[in-house]
Specification:
Strand order of the largest sheet: 5-4-3-10-9
Shape: globular
Largest sheet: 5 strands, parallel
Radius of gyration: 20 Å
Number of strands: 10
Order of helices and strands: EEEHEEHEHEHEHEHEHH
Helix content: 25-40%
Strand content: 15-25%
Distance between the termini: 43 Å
């Protein structure tokens, strides 16, 4: 059987669950939840989390599992130029790492992506040699434009960041998945394990989440649940669900009955 892996910018990952690093009580809880999730990629908000900017403060890098990919992101940026500068800083802090996550927000109430600024930033970053994973609206046209620019993954929101509302528009996600030639990962809105499983059953290549784990009553247990949900959803997608029918169909054959 062919190994089922997530490939982003030419690198293979065994886990299709990506996690964030914010909102935990402390760095110890961050490490414990990250371990439990089995994630091989963790996002880090360059503007909010210390990964070397302050040498006198604890660094997230000191507690992360060995070998995990640290994915700098532009959380808190509302303009293309700020996002570009932030990721250039991240590249310096992470010894020239090219893989980044771009998000340019429209306002601080909805945290919805500002797509014109996102497209502008994506084009600049790709020209500067970055491998760009990009948070975007669930608009198939915008997603295709980002792919055409050269982004290595598109990350449409399921619902608003931190809302936990789950997947509100599965039809748009399906359209994006159907046309995409790069990985499609749900980003934002996942609230519980069933949301992650549904995303994977739709055919998403992965799921990124932070609040759903960090905001749970027991983050470490929720991280384990999300790991299993992503795995189960992927297996169900690959297996292919039974057809939906508008009539009952007996589980046992009617022919050859004893009585």
């Amino acid at each position: 059987m062919k190994k089922d892996v997530l490939t982003i910018a030419g690198k293979e990952y065994g886990s299709r669950l990506l996690v964030g690093s914010g909102k935990y009580q402390d760095l110890a809880e961050t490490r414990a939840a990250t371990d439990a999730s089995g994630a091989e990629i963790i996002t880090v908000a360059i503007r909010r989390v210390n990964i070397g900017q302050d040498p006198n403060a604890p660094s997230l890098l000191d507690v992360l599992p060995q070998g995990i990919t640290v994915l700098p992101n532009t959380a808190g940026c509302y303009r293309a130029r700020d996002a570009v500068y932030t990721l250039q800083l991240g590249r310096e802090l992470l010894n020239g790492q090219k893989l980044v996550k771009l998000e340019v927000l429209g306002d601080d109430k909805t945290l919805f992506p500002n797509m014109p600024e996102t497209l502008l930033a994506a084009e600049t970053l790709v020209k500067d040699g970055f491998d760009v994973m990009v948070y975007c609206s669930d608009d198939p046209i915008q997603a295709r434009m980002l792919e055409d620019i050269g982004c290595v993954a598109v990350m449409p929101l399921a619902s608003l960041i931190g809302s936990g509302m789950g997947i509100l528009n599965p039809w748009n996600l399906s359209l994006i998945i159907e046309q995409a030639k790069v990985p499609v990962l749900v980003d934002a809105g996942v609230g519980t394990a069933s949301d992650a499983a549904i995303a994977m059953e739709l055919g998403c290549d992965g799921v990124l989440m932070n609040s759903a784990i960090a905001g749970a009553r027991d983050p470490v247990r929720m991280a384990r649940a999300m790991k299993l949900a992503v795995q189960a959803g992927r297996e169900a997608f690959l297996a292919g669900r039974m057809p939906r029918r508008f009539a009952a169909s007996p589980s046992s054959p009617m022919t050859g009955r004893v009585a």
